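Colleagues,

Please find the record for the two-part complex below.
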Amino acid sequence: MGADDLQAPLDQADDRIVAGRAADGDVAAFGVLVRRYTPMMRAYTRRILNSGTDVDDIVQEAFVTAWQRLPELDDPGKVKSWLMRVVSRKAVDRIRASRPQVSVDHIEHPAPAHASPPRVAETRAKVDALSDALQRLADQERECWVLRELGGYSYNEIAEEMGVPVSTVRGLLARARKHIIVRMEEWR
Amino acid sequence: MTSGDDRPEPRPLELDPEHLDGHTIDELTDYLEAGRVPADPSIDGSPACRLALDALERLHGLTPDLIAADTAAEPEADDGWVRRVLGGIALDAHAGRRIPLPTSEPGADLGITEGAVRGLVRAAERAVPGLVVGRCRFDGDVTLTGAPVRVLVDVSVPYGRPIPPLVERLRGEIAGRLALHTELNVTAVDITVRDVRPHGS
């Protein structure tokens, strides 16, 4: 009874209340944020990495950092996009640590086996097509596109995050968009 | 799709500058993101550019659906996961300032952390079922004994209950707890209702 009475209103409270309280050091409130945003952070990390490996570790690391740095968040109502930033930074760090610096003139990646032949479900067809196209992008093209479109980063922020010039980011994004559109057109 | 006649395959969308009347995807994306203003006749007048703009716009419009589908495909966070994450965080990270407490022991120094006092303020919500305390701030120099301090608190209330009595009750509870447990010179408890929950319990 008692615990539920307290837990339920906290679960239903908006981000501003829950994150403000977590920033003040309330572990239960932070637990509500973990529950609320783990699926989205996992999904986003999976898109950046194009793989499920390390996703849990990265999301957990992101929450550890988020807990420490929550007091710095001026507007707790923006905790959702802030968490996306924290986790994308962890994901990009992981990529940069694990990948030798490669030329951006990439070799086109083959489609992963499970992505072809395409499963065209009526309602999900376009999203599936986009998903498939994303999986077939070169790593850096995909990372740029995901940070830009899913993470809402500016070109400058992507450049900073990935350690490449803005002109390179523009080039990578243009190529990513072109490849995605051409592949999605093939599905129409 | 195949049909019986001998129509040629539909041409794939051409996105290279030589097919976009000299424009690039990068330029077209900037144009789109600027809301197609100021209008550029060399883009608007080019059928190839318009096709490319439409495709870029469709792609951009699909992004929220991708996020929603990706998120829905992930399992919900179970208790084990939440425990694992919470087990990895440092509990003393939010201590804040040190607030002096009086002691009769000569030479002794006693204090309580700001974080612990915030915990006292949050706990006052138990006296007002359904109300949830959010962020709590102490405006004033709490490290100085006797300095005036305003307490600023955000709250969430359930829909359907008159707000003033809830807030009054919380205000009294917070003031009482702070007077009992600390030496803070509380001049005001400012409560701001930031959230009204539609399905209040």
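Chain A touches chain B through 57 residues (CB under 8 Å).

Comments are welcome before we finalize the supplementary table.
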